[in-house]
Design a protein that fits this description.
Blueprint: E1 13-17, H1 23-37, H2 44-51, H3 53-68, E2 76-82, E3 89-97, E4 108-116, H4 125-139, E5 144-150, H5 154-162, E6 166-175, E7 179-188
Parallel strand pairs: 4-5
Antiparallel strand pairs: 1-2, 2-3, 3-4, 5-7, 6-7
Helix pairs in contact: 1-2, 1-3
């Protein structure tokens, strides 16, 4: 039996609302993605602390709360799942009303986190997540979507830009035990 060709059905998948049973997978994807994306950007000791076993326990608790008790009915966590059995959560997106003071939370949405397992990037999971969250938020009455990205996270920024997002000029500093520069990107999702 031959192995499947790259980007065949083995790389296919779908997006669905995240479930409480997904929390361990969400934490695993998040920490693996952070280890890859933030290496060389944040100090190694801090990265180990943010992605270690104790942190994974905390992230599982936070994802369980976000899924089972979201702050509003307009907060979402969506999971990217492989098509082939056994189905596996390989990415996620969380989004809801914008939190920045220069945004209007009734019509401006915010992408809080978008992560795909490092060994599953390039298979369409990120694009499926981005389209699904844009469709979900547009149905909820949002017109724009923004996201903060580490300035040095060229992979995430490049992905968003290739999907039609653009920097809007807003910049800031994120304190994760050390200060890192962030930039805000945005896109229109409805009229």
């Amino acid at each position: 039996m031959s192995s499947p060709a790259p980007h065949s059905s083995a790389a296919a998948g779908f997006v669905r609302p995240a479930r409480a049973a997904d929390v361990a997978s969400l934490a695993r994807v998040q920490t693996a993605s952070w280890r890859c994306s933030f290496a060389g950007i944040v100090p190694e000791a801090l990265l180990a602390e943010l992605t270690g076993d104790e942190a994974q326990d905390a992230w599982r608790d936070r994802w369980r709360e976000a899924i089972t008790n979201p702050p509003t009915s307009r907060h979402y966590v969506l999971a990217a799942v492989t098509d082939a059995a056994p189905r596996e959560v390989v990415g996620f997106v969380s989004a809801g009303p914008a939190t920045d003071s220069d945004r209007w939370p009734a019509t401006d949405g915010e992408l809080y986190e978008l992560r795909v397992a490092p060994d599953r990037t390039g298979h369409g999971h990120g694009s499926r997540l981005l389209h699904a969250v844009a469709d979900t938020l547009a149905r909820d009455g949002f017109h724009t979507l923004s996201a903060w990205a580490l300035e040095a996270d060229t992979a995430l920024r490049g992905f968003l830009e290739s999907s039609g997002w653009a920097a809007d000029g807003a910049r800031g500093e994120l304190d994760v035990g050390t200060s890192v520069r962030v930039v805000r990107l945005h896109t229109a999702i409805s009229e």
